[in-house]
Amino acid sequence: MMHRLSAIGALVFSVCLHAEDSQTRARRVIDEAIAALGGPAFLNMQDRSESGRVYSFYREQLTGLATATIYTRYQPPSDPHLLGVRERDSFAKSHKDEHEMYADLFTNDGVWDISYRGVRPLPKDRLPRYKESQRHNIFYILRLRLHEPGMIFESQGADVLDNRPVEIVNITDADNNTTTVYFDQTTKVPIRQVFYRRDPVTKDRDEEVTVFSKYRDVGGGVQWPFDIQRMRNGEVIFQIYAESVKINQGLADSLFELPQNAKMLKEVD
């Protein structure tokens, strides 16, 4: 009798699960992810700093290693096509010597390299690439784009990724840009995202993949990945191993502004 009741229960659960339409199931997965990431505490996160080792690669070969702190401030935009974050990537010699050697600043107006020499605008293609990457980033989507007009969330069902059961959701915006996100069925957090972009020079279609792991509580119940790896067309291009992540520190405005009276240098070609 108990076996029969268990079988009936499993059948009822299966029927209920399949009764969900694609969008209903997707919204359930999204809601579960937000709750797992900290719920209201995550949705109201104002700023963040991530400190650790940053690696860059070219054709799977290490081309750069640095100690960095990535400062991020959320600023919900009036226009969804504008950036809703400001970011400063601050680079130092080591964790023991935290004096900033140089920094990259990302705003709606441009991308700049800041050093003791002055301020140098970076190539014009850096800003649209950065904006595109942010708009596809699942944490940016959950924090700022959930209620954006035209957003569609569609479940692609369940699967297994690296021996982990996952729920797969396609997120498509009003401009028909799609991000595919894989959510761990057990922890509910995002562990992988995929989107495609067209290379402006070669016109090739590039696959952009980001993998998130080693989640930890960074305060107030907010969960954040300490290991983030990015790949392009199957090759690793960037990785950050964070040693410290802090949120809601009331980061100074000056972090996200060009220094006053700094010498303006020639733009990088």
Overview of the molecule:
- By secondary structure, the chain is α+β, with helices and mostly antiparallel strands.
- The protein has one domain (26-256): Lipoprotein localisation LolA/LolB/LppX (outer membrane lipoprotein receptor (LolB), chain A, Clam).
- It is 21% helix and 45% strand.
- It is built from five helices and 13 strands.
- β4 and β5 (111-115) form a beta hairpin.
- The chain is globular.
Name its key features.
269 residues; alpha+beta; outer membrane lipoprotein receptor (LolB), chain A; 13-stranded antiparallel sheet; 13 strands; 45% strand
What is the C-level CATH assignment? Mainly Beta
The residue fraction in helices comes out at: 10-25%
Biggest sheet overview = 13 strands, antiparallel
3D shape: globular
Number of domains: 1
Strand coverage percent: 35-45%
Along the chain, the helix and strand elements come as: HHHEEEEEEHHEEEEEEE
CATH architecture: Clam
The strand line-up of the biggest sheet is: 6-5-4-3-2-1-13-12-11-10-9-8-7
Radius of gyration, in Å, reads 21 Å
Question: Which structural category fits the helices and strands?
Answer: alpha+beta
CATH superfamily: Lipoprotein localisation LolA/LolB/LppX
CATH fold-level label = outer membrane lipoprotein receptor (LolB), chain A
The average pLDDT is 91
Distance between the termini: 76 Å
The count of strands amounts to 13
Report the total helices.
Answer: 5
Give start-end ranges of low-pLDDT stretches.
Answer: none
